[in-house]
């Protein structure tokens, strides 16, 4: 995986962010989701690197990046702090401006990054999410059953952390294998890497704090932007899985049109894990848009 890429760490915003970098050309930041790492991009990274300087980063709390302690307001894991991690990482690597391709939790970070640092982001692709505030506001039984982990992980410490740490492989298989495609999209090497990182000290805490922030301080930040009339003012492409929960329970394109001025989007014939389920289709859409 990631032939021709260099793996390294960079100290930014008070944490160490682990990343792989490869290719040449304009900067492209890749951000992953839960409960995974930057390895989600292993089926598309080498092709993207033919056109871009690709930086695939592990979010704080995930992978080999730092897992800072929690605080009372969960601000250490707010999407605002995670977004600052990404901006400072790209700047440290020589990119004052760049594009972003992001999935799941990483797409929520990217949403905040483009709001807080509009001059840094040129174009953005978000995969299989609707805006966080809209998803919480429109939660129904179907969504709650499918995304049970949203409500499990925000329970007070240490219960969710203890249950994850008691059997990381069971947790990984339960979350990833319960989607429409089961475990088929994940290669043995990728799954082994997800499991290795989930077993690292502090990862369970990082995951839970990510979700606790999303259900508290992140919603406050999102509502403040809506109240102030702030929109995403950049070319935005949103895609979701035709067989996934987001497309079933929400109208992703309509929800993004409420918070962005230049947005287009479509469903792809997949479930949640687009980059691992339909990598060639995803590449075609992303390259057309980003170039």
TrEMBL record:
Annotated signal sequence range: none
Organism superkingdom: Bacteria
Gene3D superfamilies xrefs: alpha/beta hydrolase (3.40.50.1820)
Gene Ontology molecular function: any one: haloacetate dehalogenase activity
Keywords assigned: Hydrolase
E.C. number: 3.8.1.3
Kinase recorded as keyword: no
InterPro entries xrefs: AB_hydrolase_1, AB_hydrolase_fold, Epox_hydrolase-like
SUPFAM superfamilies, per the entry: alpha/beta-Hydrolases (SSF53474)
Protein's UniProt name: Putative hydrolase
Organism: Pseudomonas fluorescens
